[in-house]
């Protein structure tokens, strides 16, 4: 859709002390005011244009404070796009900036397509003719890539799940349409509020689950939970430091039962890693020793990715083999460190134990092999299919924003069903949910409903 | 055949079925000197299929036709034998009126209206060839050599173009109901380069009412409440005839199974594409073979005939099998078959060859409407006929073209679907085709379209004044209910309790109380005495408007977005093949459809959002290039 309000992260991801989320379009100011809480309680809409304001962003549904921000407020036409523009300056780092972006998208903005700010600038007469071709090339090239990404995701678990939800909704919609268009047709159950409600509740709970557990959503919100394991003195803290130094980590202290567990976020080739128990590694070098066997098992179990470090210059020990056993069914990468020292480890045997898992050899002291490790992480995450980079975030954030929209529309349907609204009006939101879910998996063919209608029911005079 | 100059007109309408009749009346009403040419003046507005007008979506089209000054609503109001409001238990968006017609009276009344319309000439004749000069239509020549000159021609030939009737293995050249087919004109259109497709439709047998045992059927009466399609109707027909319901059974299905090899549908004799919306009984039995019975409605064809239409038994099986089928159905065991059912194949033009005004892209001043454009249904035909007539006359008279948007009317949805997406089967309107069905309601067709109808000269000043007064009463009443406070006194609480709601804790605005599901306008009216007595139609609109405000508002926001995209016009001379960024598929589709706006372009299947972006940039580039800096 054109002419709506778009948003995107307009600083390179994961780097820098601050990051900017930019909005452009007729609702930019309204959306910002929904989220922005100034200490004085002032509304941006009433402020003079081209001013900057300090405050917090809050989730308008829970009033929970999400970020401390500075918001630049610029009214059309003297802006980059010649539309109303809001720029939210927040703390740098993937997690905080993605959180801000997600919030803005939930509040009604649409994730900008590649090159879309520039395109709008052009369409609104802001940039000159010679740049037009370049804009068109950009749209074409980036979209082709986005479509590849979408195709890949089509095959995945997410698309299967969404396909199931859509089919369930479609059957209800078709049944409702038969009730409407063929009121005398007797071979179909009358669609009732309770049936519609039951289905809507089910779909909403599935969307909830998707939002909570889908790897994309979780990773965007929390990063890929990553644990570094290995015997003492194999180089875990060197690995941690290498990853962190190379990728400018943000250290956060999260509240919880163990306040001393510190996590650090790094962006490895587009994959946000949440490195768990970094304090533990730094202090005692050993997670098992520090937090006990049970807890460490639990941490391992909850991890999305394990970096299992071995010593190149020592033969495999019993403890090493036990750790292999502990991580057997998980996603892990074997990092064989200290290649600067003479080899004592039997690489063939390690590979045999690791099966089809990746092996990377490094010398962290010599700063060797870290690139290969980062590549391996990216490859594992993207299954070697998707080029790492901004596109991944785009499609992820797009899915999450759409899932939130679908959640909103199905909630509207549920609310309406509770209020005794006629069932064909409840269906308007159900249909909208079906359409939004279709956008996620790239299925927007609009003859789906008619095909369902006439294959499911024997209609006509 | 020697030729002669037979007359000069502004607009000529070929055909006088449901599309032709509306086209001719609209054109004349707009002030264009109009000729309507029909093969048989006794067949004006004939209903070759079921004797019924309206129903879901279609009934709303009839209301829209009426709000734009068309005839269908007024005529059926005078000539129906039964009317029913459908979907009354559902929300206001899907309510729809349906009438059973007296077929003969309907034709007579339509003919009378046309005869009395000044500016309109009726003539019986067969158009064979269009006169084309410089890529523009300037008239036509009839079978007897009459040359009729005109500035615009509207073709509404229904199923007549190369029509062929098929019953069993019998196939012969014919229009519907054994009328003459139109063959020369079909050839002429082909010569002129029109792409056509072959479609098929069918009709069931008719039986004599006296031979039906109604005791074995269920009665289907009309509504007791007086109903009308037209906003002008003031007199209501209260003497109604019922329809009757019976069912097919295992035996019927067995007969079909045993004789399937005789069905032209399954022997491969019929090549045309039939509508899924209107399958033959053979289709139903084959495709849904686990269904033990199918509904059969017995519909009287009029007050002065005993002929009864057997709805649900559309078939092209041989006549002797049709007799057996009838015998197997309860109530029809001894039914006397008066006419056999048949399938009919005909040429339709590919509708993406038309502009949204229904004017041909390749042949200026030529318009087509109705079944020739690939639709099925009287209402769909009439809606197109009306718009083609309006636009043909507007062009001649130098007035602005009239294109209804998808958010204005079901007619807008219908025409936009046809010219943007085309159709690969006879197209029928369904409520699900409309994105904004909550806005496109039965009750508010006048609010949506009367203004436009008046502006283009289709609605009289008198009717317009009445409309404005009604609109004003609605607005005043909504305002009144929004402002008025209702106190939680005994009367109020009692009324709310009786309605099954929960008592008020505080005072509440009347409009907010009405929003409660259990409350109706009439209940609120009891609590907020007003000196003005409002008519039912006003009350209905007030109630819907207040009760569903949130939903309506949401739809309106979507429409506002759509309008912005509709306002982005695409220049007519754009060369899609020179836009390098477009995907190949999009380029081909865009060049074929030649959309007028970005909104229309975005609805073409195969044109994705990136193509739309590129198109926008390209158009803007062209615009800047034209402005000398």
TrEMBL record, chain A:
Class of enzymatic activity (EC top level): hydrolase
Listed binding positions for K(+) are: 233, 252, 254, 257
Keyword tRNA processing among record annotations: yes
**Coiled coil region boundaries:** none
* Positions of GTP binding: 233-238, 252-258, 277-280
Q: Which GO terms describe its cellular component?
A: cytosol
Primary location group: cytoplasm
Q: Name one GO molecular function term.
A: metal ion binding
Q: What keywords does the record list, in alphabetical order?
A: Cytoplasm, GTP-binding, Hydrolase, Magnesium, Metal-binding, Nucleotide-binding, Potassium, tRNA processing
Q: How is the cofactor bound?
A: Binds 1 potassium ion per subunit.
Q: Which Pfam families match?
A: MMR_HSR1, MnmE_helical, TrmE_N
Q: Which cofactor does it need?
A: K(+)
Question: Which residues bind (6S)-5-formyl-5,6,7,8-tetrahydrofolate per the record?
Answer: 22, 87, 126, 461
Q: Classify the source by domain of life.
A: Bacteria
Q: Name one GO biological process term.
A: tRNA methylation
| Binding-site list for Mg(2+) | 237, 258
Matching CDD domains = trmE, TrmE_N
Where in the cell is the protein located? Answer: Cytoplasm
Relate the assembly described in the record: Homodimer. Heterotetramer of two MnmE and two MnmG subunits.
Q: Which HAMAP family match?
A: GTPase_MnmE
Q: Which family does it belong to?
A: Belongs to the TRAFAC class TrmE-Era-EngA-EngB-Septin-like GTPase superfamily. TrmE GTPase family.
Function (record text):
Exhibits a very high intrinsic GTPase hydrolysis rate. Involved in the addition of a carboxymethylaminomethyl (cmnm) group at the wobble position (U34) of certain tRNAs, forming tRNA-cmnm(5)s(2)U34.
Protein known as: tRNA modification GTPase MnmE
Q: Which organism is it from?
A: Planococcus glaciei
TrEMBL record, chain B:
What processes does the entry annotate via GO biological process terms?
A: tRNA methylation; tRNA wobble uridine modification
One GO CC term, this protein:
cytosol
The alphabetized UniProt keywords are: Cytoplasm, FAD, Flavoprotein, NAD, tRNA processing
Provide the assembly information. Answer: Homodimer. Heterotetramer of two MnmE and two MnmG subunits.
Q: In Gene Ontology terms, what is one molecular function of this protein?
A: flavin adenine dinucleotide binding
HAMAP family the UniProt entry points to: MnmG_GidA
Q: Which cofactor does it need?
A: FAD
**SMART domains in the record, alphabetically?**
GIDA_assoc_3 (SM01228)
Superkingdom of source: Bacteria
Q: Which residues form a coiled coil?
A: none
Organism of provenance: Planococcus glaciei
Q: What is this protein called?
A: tRNA uridine 5-carboxymethylaminomethyl modification enzyme MnmG
Q: Cellular location of this protein? A: Cytoplasm
Q: What function does the entry list?
A: NAD-binding protein involved in the addition of a carboxymethylaminomethyl (cmnm) group at the wobble position (U34) of certain tRNAs, forming tRNA-cmnm(5)s(2)U34.
Q: Where does FAD bind?
A: 15-20
Primary location recorded for the protein, binned into one broad class: cytoplasm
The similarity comment for this entry is: Belongs to the MnmG family.
- Positions binding NAD(+) in this chain are 274-288
Q: NCBIfam families under this entry?
A: mnmG_gidA (TIGR00136)
């Amino acid at each position: 859709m054109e002419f709506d309000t778009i948003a995107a992260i307009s600083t390179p991801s994961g780097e820098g002390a601050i990051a900017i989320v930019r909005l452009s379009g007729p609702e930019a100011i309204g959306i910002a005011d929904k989220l922005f809480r100034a200490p004085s309680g002032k509304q941006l809409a009433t402020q003079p244009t081209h001013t900057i304001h300090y405050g917090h962003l809050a989730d308008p549904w829970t009033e929970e404070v999400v970020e401390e921000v500075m918001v630049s407020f610029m009214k059309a036409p003297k802006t980059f796009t010649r539309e109303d523009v809001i720029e939210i300056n927040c703390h740098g780092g993937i997690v905080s900036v993605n959180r801000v972006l997600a919030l803005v998208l939930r509040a009604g903005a649409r994730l900008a397509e590649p090159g879309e700010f520039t395109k709008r600038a052009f369409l609104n007469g802001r940039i000159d003719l010679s740049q037009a071709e370049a804009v068109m090339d950009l749209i074409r090239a980036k979209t082709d890539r986005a479509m590849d990404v979408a195709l890949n995701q089509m095959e995945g678990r997410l698309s299967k799940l969404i396909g199931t939800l859509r089919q369930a909704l479609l059957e209800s919609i078709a049944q409702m349409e038969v009730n409407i268009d063929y009121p005398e047709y007797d071979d179909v159950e009358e669609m009732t509020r309770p049936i519609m409600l039951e289905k809507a509740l089910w779909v909403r709970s599935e969307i909830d689950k998707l939002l909570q557990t889908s790897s994309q959503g979780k990773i965007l919100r929390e990063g890929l939970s990553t644990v570094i394991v290995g015997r003492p003195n194999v180089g875990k803290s060197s690995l941690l430091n290498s990853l962190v130094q190379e990728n400018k980590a943000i250290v956060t202290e999260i509240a919880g039962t163990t306040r001393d567990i510190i996590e650090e976020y790094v962006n490895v080739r587009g994959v946000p890693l949440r490195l768990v128990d970094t304090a533990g590694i730094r202090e005692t070098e050993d997670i098992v020793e520090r937090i006990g066997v049970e807890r460490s098992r639990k941490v391992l179990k909850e991890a999305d990715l394990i970096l299992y470090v071995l010593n190149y210059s020592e033969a495999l020990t019993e403890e090493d083999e036990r750790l292999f056993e502990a991580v057997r069914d998980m996603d892990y990468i074997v990092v064989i460190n200290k290649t600067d020292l003479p080899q004592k480890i039997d690489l063939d045997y390690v590979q045999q134990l690791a099966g089809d898992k990746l092996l990377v050899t490094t010398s962290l002291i010599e700063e060797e092999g870290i690139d290969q490790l980062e590549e391996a992480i990216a490859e594992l995450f993207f299954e070697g299919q998707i080029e790492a980079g901004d596109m991944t975030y785009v499609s992820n954030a797009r899915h999450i924003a759409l899932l939130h929209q679908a959640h909103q529309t199905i909630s509207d349907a549920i609310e309406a069903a509770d209020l005794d609204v006629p069932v064909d009006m409840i269906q308007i939101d159900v249909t909208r949910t079906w359409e939004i879910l279709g956008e996620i998996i790239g299925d927007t063919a609009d003859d789906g409903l008619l095909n369902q209608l006439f294959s499911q029911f024997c209609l006509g005079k | 055949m020697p030729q002669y100059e037979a007359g000069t007109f502004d607009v000529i309408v070929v055909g006088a079925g449901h599309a032709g009749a509306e086209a001719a009346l609209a054109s004349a009403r707009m002030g264009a000197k109009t000729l309507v040419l029909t093969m048989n003046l006794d067949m004006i507005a004939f209903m070759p299929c079921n004797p019924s007008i309206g129903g879901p979506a279609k009934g709303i089209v009839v209301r829209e036709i009426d709000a734009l000054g068309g005839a269908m609503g007024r005529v059926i109001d005078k000539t129906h034998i039964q009317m029913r409001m459908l979907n009354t238990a559902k929300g206001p968006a899907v309510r729809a009126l349906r009438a059973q017609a007296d077929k003969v009276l309907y034709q007579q009344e339509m003919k009378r209206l046309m005869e009395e319309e000044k500016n309109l000439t009726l003539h019986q004749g067969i158009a064979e060839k269009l006169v084309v000069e410089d890529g523009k239509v300037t008239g036509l020549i009839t079978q007897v050599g009459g040359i009729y000159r005109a500035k615009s021609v509207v073709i509404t030939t229904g199923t007549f173009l190369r029509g062929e009737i098929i019953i069993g293995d019998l196939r012969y050249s014919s229009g519907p109901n054994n009328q003459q087919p139109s063959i020369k004109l079909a050839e002429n259109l082909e010569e002129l380069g029109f792409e056509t497709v072959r479609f098929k439709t069918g009709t069931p047998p008719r039986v004599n009412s006296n031979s039906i045992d109604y005791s074995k059927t269920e009665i289907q009466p009309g509504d007791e409440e007086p109903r009308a399609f037209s906003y002008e109707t003031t007199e209501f027909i209260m003497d109604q005839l019922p329809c009757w319901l019976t069912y097919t059974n295992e035996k019927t299905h067995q007969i079909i199974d045993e004789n399937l090899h005789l069905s032209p549908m399954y022997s491969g004799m019929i090549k045309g594409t039939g509508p899924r919306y209107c399958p033959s009984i053979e289709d139903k039995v084959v495709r849904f073979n686990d269904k033990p019975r199918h509904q059969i409605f017995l519909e009287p064809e009029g007050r002065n005939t005993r002929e009864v239409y057997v709805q649900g038994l559309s078939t092209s099986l041989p006549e002797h099998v049709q007799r057996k089928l009838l015998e197997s159905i309860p109530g029809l065991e001894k039914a006397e078959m008066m006419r056999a059912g048949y399938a009919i194949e005909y040429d339709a033009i590919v509708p993406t060859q038309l502009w949204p005004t229904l004017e041909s892209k390749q042949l200026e001043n030529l318009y087509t409407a109705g079944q020739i454009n690939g639709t099925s249904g009287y209402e769909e035909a009439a809606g197109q006929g009306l718009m083609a007539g309006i636009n043909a006359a507007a062009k001649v008279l130098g007035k602005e073209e009239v294109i209804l948007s998808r958010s204005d009317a079901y007619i807008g949805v219908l025409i936009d679907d046809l010219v943007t997406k085309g159709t690969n089967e006879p197209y029928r309107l369904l409520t699900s085709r409309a994105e904004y069905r909550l806005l496109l309601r039965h009750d508010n067709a006048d609010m949506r379209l009367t203004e436009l109808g008046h502006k283009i000269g289709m609605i009289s000043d008198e009717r317009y004044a009445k409309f404005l007064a009604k609109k004003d009463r609605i607005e005043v009443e909504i305002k009144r209910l929004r402002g008025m406070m209702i106190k939680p006194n005994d009367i109020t609480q009692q009324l709310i309790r009786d309605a099954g709601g929960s008592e008020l804790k505080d005072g509440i605005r009347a409009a907010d109380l009405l929003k409660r599901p259990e409350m109706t306008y009439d209940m609120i009216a009891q609590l907020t005495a007003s000196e003005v007595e409002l008519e039912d139609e006003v009350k209905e609109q007030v109630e819907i408007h207040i009760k569903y405000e949130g939903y309506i508002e949401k739809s309106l926001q979507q429409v506002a977005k759509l309008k912005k995209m509709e306002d982005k016009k695409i220049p007519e001379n754009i060369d899609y093949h020179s836009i390098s960024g477009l995907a190949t598929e999009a380029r081909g589709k865009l060049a074929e459809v030649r959309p007028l706006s970005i909104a229309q372009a975005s609805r073409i299947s195969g044109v994705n959002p990136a193509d739309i972006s590129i198109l926008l940039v390209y158009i803007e580039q062209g615009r800047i290039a034209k402005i000398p800096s």
